[in-house]
Amino acid sequence: MGTFRGMKNSAIYLLQCLLGSTLMLWLGVAQADVAISDAWVRASNPGQSVGAAYLTLRSKEDMTMVYVETERAGNTEIHSMTMQNGIMKMRHLEELAIPANQPVKLAPGSFHLMLFELGRPFKAGEQVKFRLCFKDKAGKIEEKFVSLPVKAAP
């Protein structure tokens, strides 16, 4: 009789998990299926009010990075850098497209995360926590929580 009760409880638990997962997908918030590699935050100096973070993003489906935040900065923005008429121009982007199966590299001199209003300098060896939000083609928002290592500039 104890075995039947255990099987019944397991079946109920499995049903609860399936319903919970379905509800999370229906509500439009899920764990992002975006792979992150080569991630780091540039070490900064005392008194420096801005910083930058770099990483490579990959996804099996078309995604768009729509929001980024960290507790270590008052404001975080997605930026691009391009050369125009011999002058390097940096621009704020509202979002960044991540095409299916094509890595998008955020690197010095290219796309990057710009960190404003730093509370304290980033020191090599630290880890900085980030929340990244992505949107899929259906408009569902997915988020990913990551810790990036702080490194000196290469």
TrEMBL record:
<feature type="signal peptide">
    <location>
        <begin position="1"/>
        <end position="32"/>
    </location>
</feature>
<dbReference type="InterPro" id="IPR058248">
    <property type="entry name" value="Lxx211020-like"/>
</dbReference>
<dbReference type="InterPro" id="IPR036182">
    <property type="entry name" value="PCuAC_sf"/>
</dbReference>
<keyword id="KW-0732">Signal</keyword>
<dbReference type="InterPro" id="IPR007410">
    <property type="entry name" value="LpqE-like"/>
</dbReference>
<protein>
    <recommendedName>
        <fullName>Copper(I)-binding protein</fullName>
    </recommendedName>
</protein>
<dbReference type="Pfam" id="PF04314">
    <property type="entry name" value="PCuAC"/>
</dbReference>
